[in-house]
């Protein structure tokens, strides 16, 4: 990345003993993206207490998101949703060996500082919590800790990456159990990338302007044929089939929020979704793991105009 | 294509349950070799060597367990075919592990060593560094150092007599949480005598290769080519060759992430 965090070339020094000390670098963009790469093909689950975190780890989650309320409850209870109690996050961190993520409000860089100081592994700057800065996201380059951010389209994804996000997820519509918005968002990103790949270089300038994204990142995306960071699906995933659908649409992994612990048999559903993400191309395995899961979470129909759209809270 | 059945049976597999398997396949592709995704026990029959990628070792172990892969994987290691574990893969191949989640985990084993899971701490303590890799450089050429990317990485605390150490890393006992681990492990409460501690981060025992860091996240493909040579040597004993990629321009493979430097 050209973001000022390049780690330089591999230098060759005379003898071994001092090599290590002079070249050691933490929190480079490659290390931040590296953790996200280790999460690929995995499921990240929302948990609100130690018991749920242990169930998630047992089921094979590749990370957990420590929260006070899952999105479905934030939706039904209303009020201002904030960063979770750091004490709770620390408790969850002690209980599991997999990475622990936590959410900070959009633009609330002090919440992010607090989360960094307690040593969570990843921060989600999330539209599911109440927005505190309607114009500015957190300047994520300033942090040693990596961030994941939501997007609805390519322009939004690249703006977040330029702000320092080392991982991207679709916004979807969290807490609804309805995957329609996540599909819309991943289709939009992938469709734009496919259109971009076929574009003449001369057309990229005005395309970058149209989607309001930095030209250099647009060009890099064109050359790669994909986002330059790991891309997960999120927002409304409730069944193994939903998860496999997001994988087949081209995502690198899946976040599941309310879908697991708002369902009838969380441990079993969690395990099924983990297997569905690994075997996303194998309908026989999907049929097998989808059987007898009990009740899925109650979904919300998004045609109802009274349902608040979390995804539209930020640009 | 012309190589036919025998060569195909000896291609390089990458365990693709979770983690950085795409990155390993990309690195192999840069060397002109097609990696084969391995998700089920029957996939193991078709390959001559196996890479176990980085990822969450707990997750990978769970997935392997759900599909009853462990017996087949242990059989694969016992058969003497080369296996390379990076990061989580190293934990899979180690005979002994400390720092497990409650209840412990089932692994493959085979490499006579004690590995400490998450030795280097959480994401904030993740880092990249130039490691001295004289033995790798002697065989593969290039600079004497290798950029090691350590992501929530494990480390090898002790190795058995048959294990060849390929790279180590010196930990300063007073600079981090590692202090407690190292001193308690060594039974040293005296701080002066143990201000630094060497841990092993790359090793080989017979046909098993392990690295605590992630060569698949860097441009330098020397570890991959080192492992391919292990595979070739093993195949030659059986009169087989590594299958090269089929007409790479025609195969529409997955798209890979950039390597940030």
From TrEMBL, chain A:
The keyword Chaperone does not apply. Keywords: Lyase, Pyridoxal phosphate, Schiff base. Gene3D superfamilies: Aldolase class I (3.20.20.70). D-ribose 5-phosphate binds at residues 46, 175, 236, 257-258. It comes from the Eukaryota. It holds the Pfam family SOR_SNZ. It is an enzyme of class 4 (lyase). Its EC number is 4.3.3.6. GO terms for molecular function: amine-lyase activity; protein heterodimerization activity; pyridoxal 5'-phosphate synthase (glutamine hydrolysing) activity. It catalyses: aldehydo-D-ribose 5-phosphate + D-glyceraldehyde 3-phosphate + L-glutamine = pyridoxal 5'-phosphate + L-glutamate + phosphate + 3 H2O + H(+). Residues 29-234 form the PdxS/SNZ N-terminal domain. GO terms for biological process: amino acid metabolic process; pyridoxal phosphate biosynthetic process; pyridoxine biosynthetic process. Catalyzes the formation of pyridoxal 5'-phosphate from ribose 5-phosphate (RBP), glyceraldehyde 3-phosphate (G3P) and ammonia. The ammonia is provided by PDX2. Can also use ribulose 5-phosphate and dihydroxyacetone phosphate as substrates, resulting from enzyme-catalyzed isomerization of RBP and G3P, respectively. Also plays an indirect role in resistance to singlet oxygen-generating photosensitizers. This is pyridoxal 5'-phosphate synthase (glutamine hydrolyzing). It comes from Zostera marina.
Automatic annotation (TrEMBL), chain B:
GO terms for molecular function: glutaminase activity; lyase activity. Keywords: Glutamine amidotransferase, Hydrolase, Lyase. Coiled coil: none annotated. Pfam families: SNO. It catalyses: L-glutamine + H2O = L-glutamate + NH4(+). InterPro entries: Class_I_gatase-like, PdxT/SNO, PdxT/SNO_CS. PANTHER family: PYRIDOXAL 5'-PHOSPHATE SYNTHASE SUBUNIT SNO, PYRIDOXAL 5'-PHOSPHATE SYNTHASE SUBUNIT SNO1-RELATED. L-glutamine binds at residues 55-57, 117, 151-152. It comes from Zostera marina. One of its GO terms (cellular component) is cytosol. The active site is at residues 87, 214, 216. It comes from the Eukaryota. GO terms for biological process: pyridoxal phosphate biosynthetic process; pyridoxine metabolic process. Belongs to the glutaminase PdxT/SNO family. SUPFAM superfamilies: Class I glutamine amidotransferase-like. This is glutaminase. Its EC number is 3.5.1.2.
